[in-house]
Amino acid sequence: MSIAISPSAEFPAALLQQLQQDFGLSVQADALGWYLCWNGEALVLRHTELPKQGDVLVDFCSGTAAWRRKHGGGKSEAIAKAVGLNKKSGLTVVDATAGLGRDALVLASCGAKVTLVERNPAVAALLADGLRRAAVHPDTADWLPERMQLVFAISHQALTELAAPDVVYLDPMFPAREKSALVKKEMQAFHQVVGSDEDADALWPLAWQLAQKRVVVKRPGYAEFLAGQKPTMQVEGKNNRFDVYVKAAL
Questions:
Q1: pTM above the 0.90 mark?
Q2: Which amino acids does the record list as binding S-adenosyl-L-methionine (predicted)?
Q3: Is 68 annotated as a binding residue?
């Protein structure tokens, strides 16, 4: 799905130009369906016919992200344990399916240096804007920029070109088991804009080859193993599980 930017007088001209240049996004005054726009403070994703949907944006500094960063459990969280941050700080991680960057933020707040890979231009633009705002926010400016880096690329390509990290983290889009009306509104938007990762199985061998220490795959509890590969161990989360494939000791 091609997403355009809807311009406005309030949209910072330099930012608009940068988004076009970096992510190949077009500008369309009368966009229909999903589109990107400026809400006065941030880049957001909206739908012309779904006013109750609400804006979708990347926010690393406040709201749910801030609460989870401060009170979510830190290195005791399931994702941190799966990656190995409860045993060793400062790990390098490639998040090859970054999405809105929430898992990457948890890992970065636990001390990891995370490279976020995102192939969808609209989602990558939202991530870039979230990182831009976090770089000047008093709660994140002194640590987040050096721990989170965005790479706009197809995951399969990135996994053959990036420097080998300690850990490769995969969270491919998985079809929701629940009826669409029961899925969170934001996930409905994400599924419509991004679609399902039908080529996700092909990521596993690339991730295994690139990672120095381990590969971690986030899956719904009911989902089969990625690429049919049985993990070395599993870490159970509240709503998901983390399949851990150990290649070498941390």
A1: yes
A2: 102-103, 118-119, 171
A3: no
